[in-house]
Each structure stands twice: as structure tokens, then as C-alpha cells.
Amino acid sequence: MKKLFARKFNSRTPEEALAYRVSVITIAVNTGLSLLKLIAGLLASSGAMISDAVHSASDVFSTFIVIIGVKISNRKSDSDHEYGHERLECIASIILAVILLLTGIGIGIDGLEKIAGGHYGDLRVPGVLALAAAVLSVAVKEWMFRYTRSAAEQIRSGALLADAWHHRSDALSSVGAFVGILGARAGFPVLDPVASVLICLFIAKAAYDIFKDAVDKLVDKSCDEATEEQMRAAILSVDGVLGVDRLQTRLFGSKMYVDIEIAADGSQTLYQSHHIAEQVHDKIEREYPLVKHCMVHVNPAEDGEEGTGHTD
Predict the structure, then answer these.
(1) Which of 16, 107, 243, 274 has a Cα at 20 to 30 A from 23?
(2) Cα 169–210–23 angle (5° rounding)?
(3) Residue 251, domain CATH
(4) Chain segment 175-204, per-residue pLDDT in tens
């Protein structure tokens, strides 16, 4: 069984293997943390800690979405999807953004209802155990955020990055629970719902950023200007390229597509022009590993065009 698992794990792409490993660790830690916070909330009579435990449990569900999204997006091209499946990871990111937003809205509504109710004296004073659980939760969830974000940036995974921000939202939720529990023990129970409303705003902002990034990758948004300028300089450095007539880029999930029109000496043979185009193609895909496909077209240079880097 161990050998079978090893073969199955080794068959994954490096990106998929890293995402899978991070997700397994995430699920294990979140499950244990959720149970710990639930027990602490029940024993210490803390409604805030019980709610925080439910929030941590939702992270387990979101991580399963990440695993599915990364798995599907790394499938090889087929006859029905000749350009691959990378954009399906964007769908997973959008789902996570919606889950994150709904979680934030739920926390905010609960806080507003408690503030509007005004019956703070009816609330039981939570025990020290709930306070300790909140501190532990903040530390663990912040570590999980940084660990998952580092992996997401390494493999350029939007879904994994969205899951990282879900961990940060849980850390913020635990901060709110800590402030509320501490305030209740100090005689100011209203701090609990006020903190919940503020946390809602932070979570909503994170959800918006994740959603916007995923949508940009779905609608062929261009790469940033700095990247395009670097590509243009790399193209012009190739021997035989007299100018860049057109440079178009588009994001495709976590990858990039590049379309280039270069100017070359029109008196050259087709073989020589093709050789220059191949050099440009290979240089771009070599220096920019995230470029999934690069198309190069050669135009005959116009008089005075050499070295201008002209673009349309």
C-alpha cells in the first residue's frame, strides 16, 4: 500500500504535488484546531469561540476545493481542450472568494445583531480557556497563511493563494474572538460584536481581491507593463531582430500566452527569417517559464525601422 501511494504521489506534476502536500497539512491542522476550539468554547461558555470553530471547519471544505481545482487545471491538453485546463483553477478561486465573502458577511451580521440587541448583561462571561484557545488559533492560522501563501507564489496557484487568505480571515476572526472574550472578562461585552463587524470588512476586502484576480485571468487580461517591457528588450537583443511591430500578452489561468510580430531584413531567405523567429520564440519561453505558448510572426523591416523597437 505504501509503494502504491508513493507511485501515485510521484506521478503528479511538481506543482500538483506541492499543492497536494500543503492541502493535506492544511486539512489535518484545521481539523484538529476546529475540534480544539469547539471543546474550549463549550467548556468556557464562549459563543465567540464556538463560532470561530465553525469558521475553521469551513476551511477544510475550501481546501478540498483547492485540491480539485489544482488537479483539474494541471490536466494535459486533449481534443476538446487543446489549450489546456488552467482556467478551471480560476473557477476554484472564485468559489473560494464567494465562500470567504459569505463567511465575512455572516460574522458581520452576527456582530450587528448583537450590537443592535444591546442585551450585553445577559451574556455569560467566558472562561480563561477560551482566551488561550483564541491566542493559539491566531498563531497557528497566521503560520498556515504564510506557509500556504509561500507555496501558492512558488507555483503561481490562484486557488491556493485564495485558500491562504482564507486562513488569514480565520486568524482575524480569532483576533476578534480574543478581543471579545477579553473585553467580556473586563466588563465590556460590546467589544465582541464590534470586533466582528471590523473583521467582516477585512474579510470582504480579501474576497474582492481574490475574485478580481481570478476574473482578470478569465478575460485575457494583459501582463503588467514591466513584464512586457522586459520581454520587448529580450526580443530586441536577438541577433537579426530590427524592431518589435507588435507584442501582445494575455493571462491564461496561472500561465501566459504571447503573440509577437518582429521586423527583420526583408531581403533574407525564408530559412533565415524562420531561424530568427525560432530564436525569439525559444528565448521568451526559456526566460519566462510561465509562458505556455509563444507565437512569432516576421515582417519585412521598413526603411529607418532598425533599432526603434516600434510597436502598434
Answers:
(1) 107
(2) 65
(3) 3.30.70.1350
(4) 877 887 888 788 777 776 777 777 788 778
Q: Phi and psi of 301, rounded to 5°?
A: -70, 140
Q: What letter does residue 49 receive in the DSSP assignment?
A: H
Q: Report pTM.
A: 0.62
Residue in the block written with cell 518589435? 244
Number of domains in the chain: 2
Q: Give the distance, in angstroms, between the CA of residue 240 and the centroid of all CA atoms in the same chain.
A: 40
Q: Could you read off the pLDDT of 29-47 as tens digits, one per residue? A: 989 998 998 898 888 877 6
CA dist 77 → 81, 85, 215 (Å) = 6, 7, 22
289 three-class SS = coil
CA gap 296, 251 in Å, rounded: 17
Q: Which residues does residue 255 pair with via DSSP β-bridges, in sequence order?
A: 252
Query: Which residues constitute the domain of residue 153?
Result: 2-218
From the number of C-beta atoms within 10 Å of its C-beta (0-12, 13-18, 19+), residue 12 rates as middle
> Does residue 75 sit in helix, strand or coil?
coil
